[in-house]
Amino acid sequence: EDIQILKMNGDKIPVLNMYCGNQPVFICEKAAPKISEPNGHQMTETSNCTDDGDDDDADDASNELQTELGPEPLTVMKARQLLSFYTLSQNSNVSAVDNKPALHPLWMVIKGSARFNLFGSTVVENTTIESQSCVTVDFKWGHVERILETPPLSSTATLNIKVASGDMRSPLFEMYRELEFLQTLADGLRTGETEWMEPLESTSAVNLTKAFLEELRNTAKTLQDQAAKPAETTKSESETPIFNSILERGDLDFVEQLWVRMRKSVTSYQDIGDCLKLVTEALRYGDIKPWIHRDSSSSLSKLILQSYHQQIDHVSLTGVTPVHMLLEMGLDKMRKDYINYLIGNLLFITETRCYKLCIDIQLLATVYFSSGEELTTLNHLCYYLNTEVDLQEQVIRLRKLHHLLEIILTCSTFLGLPYDRLFLLTQSCLQHYKTYPYDEQHEFKLQIKPALIGHFYQKEQPALWGVEVSSGHGPREVRTSLQLSDRPVVDHVIFETDYPNETVNGDSEDPAFFSTMVCCSLVSIA
């Protein structure tokens, strides 16, 4: 009763004119105290020391005292109390004020933010399957109405993509194992020591090579059949059958087929030397006339070209030469594998001629999706396909290209992103790895529309949820932030929750949330 609240425009009050302009403001002040007369009329309280015998003097003193009292400022405690009442009155979760009209907001802007996990570690039957890959999405929006509200479709959404190669769930896992063998050979050349991988074939590398050469001697099939048959007969039970029709090529030439057999079976330098010796002798004596892709650049491919003219240079298969030759064979084969994934069964059109999958990396042709929409160009891929740099650098660039494809495939297979988003992601990754070193911990960013991934997050709980309340403008702006997380600040402390239906061990459908950050722009700590 001793408080009066006036609503007026800020421009009518000099001290608020510069700050609020003509915006409506509430002025809370301490009103002059009132007392009641017996007849029910209000009168202004004057003084409890008035003289009963001099009514006229008392009236004059009363008028003078009323003028002097006037409105007064509130105490700090009373101001805080009023602010609490005002804030509570705007809380839609309080049933007592549900039907009351909304008052003017106490702050100009309330921004929300949230993060959802889309891809990563999963829990199956209380067992966590760890994954080094992680795809999250960050939302930002305005006009927050309640705590932990789901981001609206009008939000801005950004994907945070961090993909680690070697995930067994990836369709590229078999290609990753092939790349690992390639890296083993490169490390052996660089350090002089090689840790051989467990062979995937029970038959020895030498026996596999002998059988392969014998098959070539005895067959009379066409070159196309020779390319298709090994793709059917060299599959092992350890290979992942899913997506094979998409990722496997049916046009493997002789060198690529030999690489497939050797990389699954060699366990020593001696194996490599013996296998290549069998091949070079068969070429020298004209026992085989294998076909190869016209853009093959390995040393063995050059020997095969020479065999067409019955002129083969002598190659000393001693020292690290056999490993060097096998590494070249693998680099050649895997470059074509990655390009094959990018283009599928499509055509390269240059001038008036078509080249199907037999790719000349110098052609500045355009790579297309099956829909006919441009994804990238061979010109953009030349950095990754360049054979003029040393072998170690070629392996590094091939690892970058593999990581790029892991990222694209994760977003297309598991998230179902449309072409235009995959196109932007491809260009971003290609440009990044031309400048920066190989890094699986790097997070790639991609702007998307929330509607594209609505089914991933709209019925899920966020991993992080935050709100920022700001008031004022310019140097007077004050920002207060609160962040909630589904994980406590530290893992080694057990936190108790006040909500009986919420637990911190993941057994409940409604997980507990913890305040992990509270900060204010006026304070230098959070």
From TrEMBL:
Domain of life where this protein originates: Eukaryota
Protein name: Protein zwilch-like protein
Gene that this polypeptide is encoded by: ZWILCH
